[in-house]
Amino acid sequence: MSKSMTFEEPIVKLREKIAELKEIANNADVNMSDEIETLENRLRQLEEKIYSNMEPWDRVQVARHPERPTSLDYIQELFTDFIELHGDRYYGDDHAIIGGIAFFDDKPITVIGHQRGKTTKENIRRNFGMPHPEGYRKALRLMKQAEKFGRPILCFIDTKGAYPGKAAEERGQSEAIANNLFEMAGLKVPVISIVIGEGGSGGALGLGVSNRIYMLENSTYSVISPEGAASILWKDATLAKQAAEAMKITSYDLKSMGIIDGIIPEIAGGAHKDIKAQALSIKKCITESFESLTSLTEKELIDDRYNKYRAIGEFLELEV
């Protein structure tokens, strides 16, 4: 358990106490069922109290949990016969973005997602889920392929942001993301994006121009990380908690502002507690969304996407 997840510490300690009593009861052949039942009831009450009153910073920590399901985890649960496709046909293959063709309820679909690792070795290979420009060009290649063959597109968003290193900038990082925004706006097939963890900056937007965008309950979606915002605003990254509250980066904040289309509930404690149950909630959302979009014509899909983003925010037009 990460030391930063302080809001969960009382739950962790109580679980450890229950496990300790169970071990004593088994080894010493002592009946401690009443004590264990009392603690388990207290645990349920504590979980309900803590997880129903999470602050924005708490949700940031859950979104960053090292065991939180990744794009590949959900692909394994939701799709069949997934074939991963590699390379951007310009430079190389970026392991921070995965994509390919699969079947969803026996229908072909193109699925693309940011991919981070769960171990140090895998995180290094995946560049901690921060794509280079070839990753976004690979994603766009797969989207254009899907458009050619009439397949709907599903994108999983889970990145701190696009990689800001020198090599990425030299190979056209900003141009690659900008081109994705431009091309995704005009795709003639249904596009759905789901934020499953962190949705950071332009790195998230590169897979986010869609007809429908959803967020898992404890995910985040913002122009910058709370630490980055605190460093800019107050010259102090330790004020990240205050920044998270001010930035309105949670699913509930973004839904209230009309930036996302819906929130996918998570079980108490986060998606990592039960990936199969979480995948079922995501599947229901995907099914309902594609059912509403597949009846639209190509022009209606493009207009739907345009009107969605046109309606975000408030602005005033002055008469000339």
UniProtKB/TrEMBL annotation:
Entries under PROSITE patterns matching the protein: COA_CT_CTER
Coiled coil, from the record: 11-49
Pathway(s) where this gene product acts: Lipid metabolism; malonyl-CoA biosynthesis; malonyl-CoA from acetyl-CoA: step 1/1
Subcellular location: Cytoplasm
Domain of life, source organism: Bacteria
GO MF, one annotated term: acetyl-CoA carboxylase activity
UniProt EC number: 2.1.3.15
Domain CoA carboxyltransferase C-terminal, residue spans: 38-292
Catalytic activity field: N(6)-carboxybiotinyl-L-lysyl-[protein] + acetyl-CoA = N(6)-biotinyl-L-lysyl-[protein] + malonyl-CoA
InterPro entries (UniProt xref): Acetyl_CoA_COase_a_su, ClpP/crotonase-like_dom_sf, COA_CT_C
One cellular component (GO) term of this entry: acetyl-CoA carboxylase complex
Protein name, UniProt field: Acetyl-coenzyme A carboxylase carboxyl transferase subunit alpha
Species the sequence originates in: Lysinibacillus composti
